[in-house]
């Protein structure tokens, strides 16, 4: 099982999730400049459909676009929250997503899971 953890930026929260390029080989193979819908399960077993897109230019960073803002809105994600995104072993490939927010609990900073 491959995964990445990412602290969300303004771009991630405002328009699209920029996926780390080292994780690109774990994602569906998409020709640059084309988009493909992919289904992702959250930790509450709800399905989300995101448009996965790889830019065509020199900066071939992969992103999740369509459907992503709805996920951000419904989960009330903010800059600084964390996303955990993983590819589940098997064929066909399956993906899971979870989110965490840093909160103060009994005077200590801890990460709380968001569903």
Brief characterization of the structure:
The chain is mainly β.
What does it look like?
It is a single chain. By secondary structure, the chain is mainly β. Helices cover 11% and strands 46% of the residues. Strands 1, 2, 3, 4, 5, 6, 7 and 8 form an eight-stranded mixed sheet that branches.
CATH superfamily: DNA-binding pseudobarrel domain
Q: Give the topology string: H per helix, E per strand.
A: EHEEEEHEEE
Strand content: over 45%
Number of strands: 8
Q: What integer value in Å does the Rg equal?
A: 14 Å
Class computed from helices, strands and strand pairing: mainly beta
Core attributes:
transcription regulation; single chain; eight-stranded mixed sheet; mainly beta; 8 strands; DNA binding; 115 residues
What's the arrangement of secondary structure elements?
Layout: E1 2-7, H1 10-14, E2 17-18, E3 35-42, E4 47-54, E5 62-64, H2 68-75, E6 82-88, E7 94-105, E8 108-114
Parallel strand pairs: 3-7
Antiparallel strand pairs: 1-6, 2-5, 3-4, 4-5, 6-7, 7-8
